[in-house]
Specification:
The protein is α+β, with helices and mostly antiparallel strands and about 180 residues long. It has helices at about 5-15, 20-25, 30-40, 45-55; strands spanning about 80, 85-90, 100-105, 120-130, 130-135, 140-145, 145-150, 155-160, 165-175. Strands 1-2-3-9-4-7 form a 6-stranded antiparallel β-sheet, with no helix packed on it. A 3-stranded antiparallel β-sheet has the order 6-5-8, with no helix packed on it. A hairpin with a 3-residue loop joins strand 1 (about 80) and strand 2 (about 85-90). The model is unreliable at about 65-75 (pLDDT under 50).
Length: about 180
């Protein structure tokens, strides 16, 4: 994720003249947790990163993509690793895309604390492993070759609560 996720988070927060308190209020994440992220002491789950992206009003790809002018090919995907997940952007060169495709590998035990909402829609297709989904209090397990398409304004979360790697294709609409 760029040079340092925490550095990039702090940089965009400062550019938007937002305090840690304001980011905390908008994202639902604690000030101390956000401060530790900015200082490189903690890592974010994919869900927490989405909350921060939404709160900062930036596309989640901001934290992963570098400026690229060439055509993307299978061998040149932009892959970034975190302690809890690997994110591979499958986005093309469209400046303001209507949707964002990504390949996500959720490491064993990658879990979230609470359902959340954000603008847009998500389409999740499980390529391998299994994915726990909670949508407005209802829980379901998706296995390889199963999918779900949801309105992201409904309280939801998805995570890998197993001891094996889960690989998903995520297509989310661009946050407005």
């Amino acid at each position: 994720m760029k040079d340092s996720l925490g550095y990039e988070l702090k940089k965009i927060r400062k550019e938007k003249k937002m305090t840690l308190q304001e980011l905390s209020d908008k994202s639902g994440l604690s000030i101390s947790f956000l401060s530790q992220i900015e200082r490189g002491l903690r890592t974010l789950t994919f869900t927490s990163l989405r909350k921060v992206s939404e709160a900062l009003d930036v596309n989640i790809n901001f934290f992963f993509e570098e400026s690229v002018t060439s055509i993307k090919k299978e061998g040149s995907k932009n892959k970034k690793k975190s302690k809890t997940f690997t994110y591979t952007s499958l986005a093309g060169q469209i400046e303001k895309p209507d949707f964002i495709p990504a390949l996500i590998e959720l490491k064993a035990g990658e879990a979230h604390s609470a359902p959340y909402t954000h603008s847009g829609q998500e389409f999740v297709y499980v390529l391998s492993g299994q994915l726990e989904i909670e949508l407005e209090g209802a829980r379901e397990t998706l296995y390889a070759n199963e999918s779900i398409h949801i309105d992201s304004s409904k309280a939801h979360q998805w995570y890998n609560n197993t001891n094996q790697l889960t690989v998903i294709l995520l297509v989310s609409s661009n946050e407005k």
